């Protein structure tokens, strides 16, 4: 199986993944980044793809149904956070600290400007 076939097999294990003709589709840059981080951690051997599929499935089930897929990548990110914490790659306190830092940075950023982590509040 070549790399392209392997990638397709991995994606086929995620039937709810928003996709177009060329593969996954993203509404926001952070969604693509969360997707890329997941693939990079998997490729680095931090977790198996069945472990990832199980984590994502559990998060989607816990959240209930999302008919239009609007929050799919929010669930994806939460599953990645939980699996990373479960694997010892990060901790819940570190995740909380990062969420607060990003929230502060977002509030300190003018509309339309890129968010810079560590930005001073106005």
Question: Can you describe what's shown?
Answer:
The chain is mainly α and 122 residues long. It is 58% helix and 3% strand. The chain is built from five helices and two strands; from the N terminus they run H-E-E-H-H-H-H. The protein has a two-stranded antiparallel sheet with strand order 1-2. A hairpin with a 2-residue loop joins strand 1 and strand 2. Helix 3 crosses helix 4. It is globular. 11% of the residues are buried. The mean pLDDT is 82.
Count of helical segments? 5
Major pleated sheet = 2 strands, antiparallel
User: How many runs of DSSP E, i.e. beta strands?
Assistant: 2
Major β-sheet strand ordering: 1-2
What is the terminal-to-terminal distance? 54 Å
Please state the average pLDDT score: 82
- β-sheet strand percentage: under 5%
H and E string: HEEHHHH
- Please give the share of residues in helix: 55-70%
Structure class: mainly alpha
Shape: globular
In angstroms, what is the radius of gyration?
A: 16 Å
- The low-confidence parts are none
Attribute tags:
single chain; 122 residues; mainly alpha; two-stranded antiparallel ribbon; 5 helices; 2 strands
Write the layout of secondary structure elements.
Elements: H1 3-12, E1 19-20, E2 23-24, H2 29-43, H3 49-63, H4 72-86, H5 92-107
Antiparallel strand pairs: 1-2
Helix pairs in contact: 2-4, 3-4
Brief sketch in words of this structure:
This protein is mainly α and 122 residues long. The chain is 58% helix and 3% strand.
């Amino acid at each position: 199986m070549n790399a392209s076939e392997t990638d397709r097999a991995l994606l086929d294990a995620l039937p709810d993944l928003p996709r177009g003709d060329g593969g996954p589709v993203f509404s926001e840059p952070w969604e693509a980044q969360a997707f890329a981080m997941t693939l990079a951690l998997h490729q680095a051997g931090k977790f198996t793809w069945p472990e990832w599929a199980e984590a994502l499935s559990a998060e989607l089930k816990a959240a209930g149904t999302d008919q239009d897929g609007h929050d799919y990548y929010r669930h994806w990110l939460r599953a990645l956070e939980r699996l990373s914490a479960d694997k010892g790659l990060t901790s819940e306190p570190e995740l909380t600290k990062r969420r607060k830092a990003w929230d502060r940075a977002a509030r300190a950023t003018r509309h339309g400007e890129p968010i810079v982590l560590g930005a001073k509040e106005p």
